[in-house]
Predict the structure.
Amino acid sequence: MAGSFPYQAIRPGDLMESLNQTLFLWLNAPEHPGTLISMVAILLAEWFIWTIPLLIGIGWLRGSESTRKAMLVATASGLLGLLVNQLIGLAWTHPRPFMIGLGHTLIPHVADSSFPSDHLTLWWAVAFSLVLQGGPRNAGITLTLLGVPIAWARIYLGVHFPFDMLGAVVVAAFSAWLTAQGAHWYLGAIYRFATDIHRRLFGRLIALGWVRD
C-alpha cells in the first residue's frame, strides 16, 4: 500500500537491554566525578567484601555450635551462588559496560561476563542465608541492607549494569534457600571435619581461652 511503512517488531530482549543501559547511565559516574563520592564508592565496591570472610571467621572462632553451623551453611550458600554464576556465564555471556564503550569506568576490571554480579551474589547469598537461619538474623539483615549501596557503587564505578544486581539477588536467594533446605544432608559431616581442623590449628589458643573449643 502506498505511503505505508514497514513494521518491525521490538523484541523484549532489546527493550530490556535498552532499559538496562538507560538505568546504568543514570547511576554511573559523570565524566568528572567528585573525589569524595569516588572514594566512598571504591570503599564500598572493593573493600567491603572482606566483611564476609571476617564475619564468618569471627563467628566460627568465637561463636557457639549453632553459630558455627550457621556460618558453614552461609559459606555453602556463597560458594553455590558463585558456582551458579559461572554456569550462567558459560551459557550466556553479557559484556560489561566498558566492553561496549558505555559510560565511565573508574576502576580496572577483567573483561568477563557481567551477569550476574559475583560480588553481590556472594554478599547477598551469605546475607540471605543468615536471615533464613534465624539465629544470626540481625547480622543477615544488616548485610542485606548494606548490599544496596555496594550494588550502587559497582554500577557507579562502571563495572556492572543494574540488571546484573537483580540477577545476583535471584541467584543469592536460590542458593540460600537450597543450602538451608539441604543442610541435613551435608552439615553434620562438614561440621565435624571443620571442628577437627579447628582443634588442630588452634589447640594452644583454645587452652589459653582465647578461642572457643
The radius of gyration is 21 Å. The first helix runs from residue 12 to 27. The mean pLDDT is 92. The CA atoms of residues 105 and 167 lie 21 Å apart.
